[in-house]
Amino acid sequence: MHQPASYTDLFFVFMLAGFLGFQLIKRVSPLLHSPLMSLTNAIAAVVIVGAILVTGAGDATPLAKALGFVAIFAATVNVVSGFMITDRMLKMFKRKGQ
Questions:
Q1: How far is CA 62 from CA 18, 28, 49, 65, in A?
Q2: CA-based nearest residue to 93, from 25, 34, 28
Q3: In whole angstroms, what is the distance from residue 3 CA to residue 5 CA?
Q4: For 46, which of 11, 38, 52, 70 is 20 to 30 Å away at the CA?
Q5: What confidence tens digit (pLDDT) does each residue in 52-84 have?
Q6: Residue 40 per-residue DSSP state
Q7: What is this structure's pTM?
Q8: If DSSP codes are grouped into helix, strand and coil, which group holds residue 29?
Q9: C-alpha 26: how far from its chain's center?
Q10: What CA–CA distance (Å, rounded) separates 65 from 57?
Q11: Phi, psi of 58 (to 5 degrees)
Q12: More confident position, 57 or 34
């Protein structure tokens, strides 16, 4: 029978993912920042959908609802700012007359 993961295990996985993600982003070439921004926007959109499902669940605890709301807010800010940065970068490559 499968035992649920403890909070210590989940926290360890979260910290490891954060560290590896930081190391990966730090080493990305400047030429790849736009494609990487598109990928993070797509991941954030998946996070938003998952957080909406968790937050809207009928049997969700108050902690789950609060964390779901924080996840929705943070991922939405990430998506909007990602689109704003991408738009600004694309404007840098337009000619002055266009």
A1: 25, 38, 19, 5
A2: 34
A3: 6
A4: 11
A5: 998 898 888 899 899 999 999 999 998 888 888
A6: H
A7: 0.62
A8: coil
A9: 16
A10: 9
A11: -65, -30
A12: 57
